[in-house]
Amino acid sequence: MSPDKLFDYLDGKLSSQEQAELERQLATDTYLQRQLVIAREIHSRMRSSPEVLLEDEATAKRGAILGRRVAIAFAVLVFMNVVFGLYAIGFLEKKKRARPTEEQNRKELAAGLASPHPSPYPRPS
């Protein structure tokens, strides 16, 4: 018999069918009865153990402080992300406005082709 099953029996976590079967086995098996006595003792000590029930006050405070620090770091990172995003959007818009449009490029090209300035490149013959 596994100790987990005995602990589940003591906690009342077994189904009624499993519980009935275990009680039937307990009625005839002396080794299983001894295991149950040991499991009961361990189970009762676990419930009354001060290590399990008491929580260190310093640990609780440390958890609260750590939680606040994580929240502050998260808020700062979100703020920095928003500021950088706004800056990037503004920079890209400014760059977009400074770039000549297709129509302006065509006008410059037409003016350059119409000007009498000699080309620095030789014309093929």
Describe the model:
With 125 residues, the chain is an all-alpha fold. The protein folds into 2 domains: 1-54; 55-103. It contains 6 helices and no strands. It has helices at residues 3-11, 16-28, 30-48, 50-53, 57-98, 102-114.
Short description:
The protein is an all-alpha fold and 125 residues long.
Reconstruct the topology from this structure.
Blueprint: H1 3-11, H2 16-28, H3 30-48, H4 50-53, H5 57-98, H6 102-114
Helix pairs in contact: 1-3
- Radius of gyration computed on alpha carbons: 41 Å
Low-confidence blocks of residues: none
Q: Tell me the number of strands.
A: 0
The secondary-structure class comes to mainly alpha
End-to-end CA span? 103 Å
Summed up, the helix count is 6
Helix/strand order, N-terminal first? HHHHHH
Please state the average pLDDT score.
Answer: 83
Task: Give the domain tally.
Answer: 2
% residues in beta strands: under 5%
Biggest pleated-sheet summary: none
- 3D shape: rod-shaped
Helix content: over 70%
Search tags:
mainly alpha; rod-shaped
